[in-house]
Amino acid sequence: MNGAIHALACRYAELPVQVIIGEIRDRIGVWRPLPAVTFRETAIDYLVHGQDIAVPLGRTLPMPSGLGVIAADRVWSSPRMFRARKKLAGYRLVADDAPWAAGQGQEICGPISALLLLLTGRPAALPRLSGPGVAGLREFFAPSLAA
Description:
By secondary structure, the chain is mostly helical. The protein is built from seven helices and three strands, in the order αααααβββαα. The chain has a three-stranded mixed sheet with strand order 2-1-3.
């Protein structure tokens, strides 16, 4: 998937800016999901990418907790999506603002929005998490934080 995205991005980089802007404008309001994409995957994209923008800007973007639970469940239950269960083996994730928990091991607590960022591999979640497992997460994310 990363290779396909990279190849497509390289092809688009060769296009004139006005062509790219035109394509973006043409897509506004258009929804054509891929055959295997459900509302759960769409929720993941919507919630996580919104946070990807808001967090570095120092902005708060509220996340509906019910939708956050649906997205977190989907990421956790998929063996291929982000490989969250494998990467976070040995940890117990517990939302402190929604009825959601997963895994076994050292506890990591926080809002569902931070846990969803963690599940999708975003170190931006770390400042909003607490519990005995957080120190291990800091070590896990250390290479990406140093870059």
